Amino acid sequence: MTPELAARFARIALGHVTREYPHKADHVYVGDDDLYSPRRVHPIFYGSYDWHSCVHGYWLLTRIRRLYPDIAEVGAIDALFAEALTPEKVEAERAYLDRPDSRGFERPYGWGWLLMLASELAVADSPHAATLRPLAEAFAARWRDYLPVLTYPVRVGTHANTAFALVLIDRYARVMGDESLRSLMAARAKAWFGEDRAAQAWEPSGQDFLSPVLIEAMAMQRLLPPEDFATWFADFLPALADGRPETLFTPARVSDRSDGQIAHLDGLNLSRAWAMRSLGPALSGSVATLLDDSAARHIDAALDAVAGDYMGEHWLASFATLAMTGVD
Questions:
Q1: Cis before 43 (ω within 30)
Q2: Which end of the chain has fewer beta carbons closer than 10 Å to its terminal beta carbon, N or C?
Q3: Could you tell me if 42 and 51 are in contact, meaning their C-beta atoms sit under 8 angstroms apart?
Q4: Cα separation of 13 and 47, whole Å?
């Protein structure tokens, strides 16, 4: 990441987090009088095509504001946050969760990103961290309640992926010093993934933006002690040093970036790069080099697609920022 690229990403996010339409709602209608308008129902996160993309647009702006405080876009970021992150608007977002039919709202992808935003505001020592806290605590409580009843993990390469939420929410728990939440997540991760061996990596599917294999490994890296992770990982991907499974090292080809589902594959390339760069330091020299080289190829395959078509533009810069700056 360079200051110039950070400024470009900031301009992209500033251009869509307050763009109300087009909008894809995650809303259960309960009657004829249940009228939905994005800005009325979600006074903060109404833009960026959908709620979760708007949340991680705000995360991107918070991270860039923290890492690159001298870029010209900081003034616009500060003005946006002062207008958007007010106690009244946060309470409206939180109150939406009280609807009887909102139990599964944005679970778990949006939950993870909201908690990532909360952790980033806290690390940045932002005055908005305290304002957002009631909403963050509401989602953290939902996650804590959900973990014991989720008998089986969701292993898809899209929003429902359980391991991805573990990675994001682990960052929140670390920042907040919530060791009880981390312990609960570690126990569930070991129950779900602890016996996984020789991953075949039957991916990507036609609409993946996450690698189920690499994201699972990343979750275990964060939640297991280093020596336990090393043992588990050696069994999970035993031929990695030989470049297998080969599909993990081959950037996905995107045939139509105007198709929102096919455009997910640009995100897959970026999230794979993020995972590879995260895993590399925990592994031996040759494997780490292999992953680092592959990460660079995956970033090169997707970086030019971050802007151009709104189907990717409303979210891809966040994944590029993950790939270049990491989860912490």
A1: no
A2: C
A3: yes
A4: 10
